[in-house]
Amino acid sequence: MYLPDFNFHQPVSIQDAILLLGQKPNAVAMAGGTDLLVEMKKGVRMHENVISLVKIRELKLITEDEENLIIGACTTHSEIIASALVGKIAPSLVEATSKIGSDQVRNTGTIGGNICTAASCCDTAPVLLSLNASVEIAGSENVRTVPLNDFFTFNKKTILTTGELVTKIIVPKPGPGTGACYEKFGLREAGSISVVSVAAMVRVADGACADACIVIGAVAPTPKISRQATEMLRGIKVSEFVENQFFQEELGAAAVRDSIPIDDIRGGAQYRRDVLKVLVQRAIRRAIELAGRHSPPSLVGEGGQGG
Fold it and tell me: Range of 293's domain?
């Protein structure tokens, strides 16, 4: 299979990229191209004009302000893994990113591309959702910031309109006592696509889960927050969670109720439900353990691992 003919453009500014997307017929933006070029080669997608974003420097910046970690949309997965700043503020994002594809894919693929594919099995979205991240979207008329939870509309569908680009991923800095992690189940150890994934964020204060967010992936049309599991976990004493196996299983079952899995080549719907129930419990246990490590003594209270 060969790539079809197309016109290739390399703008050096966001404004120029947006202009090209609006003016050129059947145009598409390309960051790393690890999904787009494969789909074009297979004939799944056809575009007369490909607008490469790789020469736009501001799309590759990793920085921070007082409240947020800010990652340019064209930052590669390998650059995120290597970033001391990301590792300090959002280690769960590094963990998720390190589980994407192979070295070649991580060296080329980008965080913005991973999000904009809007695949149910993408690895960065669950963690970013658990951390309450937002995306900055630039268009010809304005720049807007949208919670990532509002960005996905369906499998491989987003709120982006013609001529719009995701330019930044904005991640609020977690407060004291916060633990977050990512659990992924695939069919092989390396280069696997998620059969089920779970991101868990827990903030522990005074021995209780003051805040939490459980996100499930590859078991619904898009990565989604499990409202039932999240609400069950909020306010619970850490000691009660740790010592109560029945409650842990109920949390897993709550996440399953929020799932809408399908049967496909990687696994059946019921198999996904069974794996999800276990993975949710595992992710929450580890997030609580990490929260305990990051808690000042005054926040931890009694009970060993942050409770």
Answer: 178-300
